[in-house]
Design a protein that fits this description.
It catalyses: a secondary aliphatic amine + O2 + H2O = a primary amine + an aldehyde + H2O2. The chain is an alpha/beta fold and 468 residues long. Helices cover 34% and strands 22% of the residues. 51% of the residues are buried.
Length: 468
């Protein structure tokens, strides 16, 4: 055996590292096996080619009020917060390509019927996400058996209101409302303190702050708190086998075997398909893994000489019914001359866009940016220094997708409340941002899931110790 420990943690993302830290602080021996050559999972900070700071391929945003675990790490590691820019107008593009400039946190000026429908859908969905009955039987299964699109239609959504709801799911998941369980999207909204807050970039919203040093600085700092040798990089797991009630053997793709009493798995749902389990996972978990999926979600980051959009009175936030861009955000760090727009290309438009050549992809994005921010293609091209593109859909350890996996209808209904909250099977506990009822899909959710999973495992270990 390469190692014997109380617990093996598979995956050195935020939730895996947090679980390992809590176990270590409770004087339990732990080994962390990470497939990549780095820690952080889907936190991946990249340096600009010109050296002017960093941009994020993965998770980028947090806040300092209701995401306290992440904020505490930022303070502990001395990281520099950057307030998300919301000063200026938002560019809103309809399905025909007509652009409106609207004040931040207000609706575009559609017809009165459409605006009333958008508000009604928003408010009804907000109310449903705050209603405990939505997540209890029989309502839970009823909501899981329909798509979010069907929920919107049943609640009187006009075509424009449905397009607005499409911006929501594409921005959050890279999926269309017809792909997502209504229950699953309600759970996401509930965990983010409602659909309004979920989409908010101001104070208390989940997109309020970024980090000048990059979010990957957090897991790097967490890893340094663990004893040397705890984390084994380049150690992708091939199989997890139970040899006895209190003995699991975890084997890497290189044939190295590690033994432990318990296993915590901190990888995305679709990535479970890369591991062989003996015995097989129980039926509900097998069904979940077979069904859960990522949307199509690409960050196309444009690096610029100046924040030209601000000169036109825009804050850099935009949304589009037309595509290929679903939305954009200003991800500049002015003090470094690091000016950038992160463009989110998602879902159906993204699949068409990805079939284009690199040159044609860039041209499509630049032309849309010129239209959105009313400066024209030539101005955007003149300001452009370069682009960088996320590639999560090619990463098997991420489960071939981003930002987090979500189930279609008919998968998570039943089982009372919080069916995804730290599923357990024998001595194996699942953690991760998709396995939490709080801040699902966000860094804070990953940390909270890791803490909860560690607490469950520690309780089991203590009980076993008492019975020995």
């Amino acid at each position: 055996m390469e190692s014997t420990s109380d617990v093996i943690v598979v995956g050195a993302g935020l939730s895996g590292l947090q679980a390992a830290l809590d176990l270590h602080c409770s004087c339990r021996s732990v080994v962390v096996l990470e497939a990549r050559d780095r820690v952080g999972g889907k936190l991946r900070t990249v340096q600009r080619p010109d050296g002017k700071g960093f941009q994020e391929f993965g998770a980028a945003w947090l806040n300092d009020t209701n995401q306290q675990h992440m904020w505490n790490y930022c303070r502990q590691f001395g990281l520099t917060p950057v307030v998300q820019n919301i000063i200026g107008a938002v560019a809103c593009e309809d399905a025909q390509g007509k652009v409106q400039s609207v004040p931040f946190n207000t609706l575009p000026e559609f017809s009165q019927v459409d605006n009333d429908s958008i508000k009604s859908i928003r408010d009804k969905f907000e109310a449903a996400s705050f209603d405990p009955e939505s997540f209890k039987e029989p309502r839970r299964t009823e909501l899981d058996n329909i798509t979010f699109e069907r929920w919107c239609v049943r609640n009187g959504a006009t075509e424009v209101a449905l397009r607005t709801a499409t911006v929501w799911t594409r921005g959050t998941l890279g999926q269309d409302p017809c792909d997502v369980s209504a229950l699953a999207f309600l759970e996401i909204a509930r965990g983010a303190l409602g659909i309004v807050n979920l989409r908010y970039d101001g104070k208390h919203g989940p997109q309020h702050l970024r980090l000048q040093e990059g979010t990957q600085a957090v897991p790097v700092g967490m890893a340094k708190l663990l004893p040397t040798g705890t984390i084994r990089l380049n150690s992708a797991v091939r199989s997890i086998s139970r040899r006895a009630p209190l003995e699991y053997v975890v084997t890497t793709i290189h044939g190295r075997r590690h033994q432990a009493r318990k296993v915590i798995i901190s990888i995305p749902g679709p990535a479970y398909k890369t591991i062989t389990f003996e015995p097989a996972l129980p039926g509900p978990m097998e069904s979940y893994i077979a069904s859960v999926r990522f949307g199509c979600y690409v960050k196309y980051i444009c690096l610029f000489r100046t924040p030209f959009w601000r000169e036109k009175g825009f804050c850099g936030l935009s949304q589009s019914f037309k595509g290929p861009l679903n939305h954009t955000r200003d991800t500049s760090v002015d003090s470094q001359g690091n000016y950038a727009l992160t463009c989110f290309v998602t879902s159906t438009p993204a699949r068409s866009w990805l079939r284009l050549s690199d040159r044609d992809r860039r041209e499509a994005v630049l032309r849309q940016l010129g239209s959105l921010f009313t400066v024209g293609y030539d101005k955007v091209k003149e300001e452009l220094l370069g682009t960088i593109t996320s590639d999560w859909h090619q990463d098997q350890w991420a489960g071939w997708g981003c930002p987090f996996a979500c189930p279609p209808p008919g998968v998570i209904g039943g089982g009372g409340t919080g069916g995804l909250c730290n599923p357990r099977f024998g001595g194996i506990t699942a953690v991760g941002t998709e396995f939490t009822n709080e801040w699902r899909g966000y860094m804070e959710g990953a940390v909270r899931s890791g803490k909860r999973g560690a607490s469950l495992v520690l309780s089991d270990l203590q009980g076993e110790d008492n019975n020995l």
